[in-house]
């Protein structure tokens, strides 16, 4: 979080833990392996937040209410797990621009596939909305990327160290989703 992936060394990580490099290497063979583990945990936390909302759809919520609840769960997960989710975003950048070994590339491809599966939850909901006549003639893919991007931008501007209240994070997540779902105009 402080220096980014490339500028952070195992020495930096060990110092932050109050540990030795050897202890870090005992658990992770390399810095990229540690990065992958954090990335996996970040994706797990996103799925853990959103999948229960998707599964509730069978209880009679309208598709619009479900989409709004999915976005709310996603926004809150980003705010509450800011550091993990920032690593997920760094993973996307590494995937697009990073030079790595074929084995590392394969692992990162698997992580990106997980991210794509997460996005597909929203694409599926948007496709149901479009089929039900709730969406304009928008591309489901573009709509999903725009909604998720709007929420994920909070990883850039949100400062978790200045906001320790769960209630204020919930309120902020609601406000973000409200703008995305209902816009700014009365």
TrEMBL record:
It holds the Pfam family TetR_N. The lineage of its organism: Bacteria, Pseudomonadati, Pseudomonadota, Betaproteobacteria, Burkholderiales. It comes from Orrella marina. PANTHER family: HTH-TYPE TRANSCRIPTIONAL REGULATOR BETI, HTH-TYPE TRANSCRIPTIONAL REGULATOR RUTR. InterPro entries: DNA-bd_HTH_TetR-type_CS, Homeodomain-like_sf, HTH-type_TetR-like_transc_reg, HTH_TetR, KstR2_TetR_C, Tet_transcr_reg_TetR-rel_C_sf. Keywords: DNA-binding, Repressor, Transcription, Transcription regulation. Residues 1-46 form the HTH tetR-type domain. This is TetR/AcrR family transcriptional regulator. Residues 9-28 bind DNA. One of its GO terms (molecular function) is transcription cis-regulatory region binding.
């Amino acid at each position: 979080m402080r220096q980014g992936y490339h500028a952070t060394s195992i020495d930096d990580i060990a110092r932050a833990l109050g540990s030795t490099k050897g202890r870090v290497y005992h658990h992770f063979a390399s810095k990229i392996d540690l990065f992958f583990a954090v990335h996996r945990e970040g994706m797990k936390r996103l799925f853990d937040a959103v999948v229960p909302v998707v599964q509730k759809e069978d209880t009679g919520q309208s598709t619009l209410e479900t989409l709004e609840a999915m976005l709310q769960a996603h926004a809150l997960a980003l705010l509450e797990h800011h550091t993990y989710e920032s690593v997920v975003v760094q993973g996307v950048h590494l995937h697009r621009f990073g030079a790595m070994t074929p084995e590392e590339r394969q692992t990162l491809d698997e992580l990106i596939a997980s991210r794509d599966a997460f996005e597909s939850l929203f694409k599926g909901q948007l496709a149901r909305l479009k089929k039900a006549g709730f969406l304009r003639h928008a591309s489901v893919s573009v709509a999903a990327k725009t909604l998720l991007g709007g929420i994920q931008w909070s990883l850039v501007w949100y400062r978790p160290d200045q906001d320790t209240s769960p209630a204020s994070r919930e309120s902020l997540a609601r406000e973000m989703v409200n703008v995305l779902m209902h816009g700014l105009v009365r």
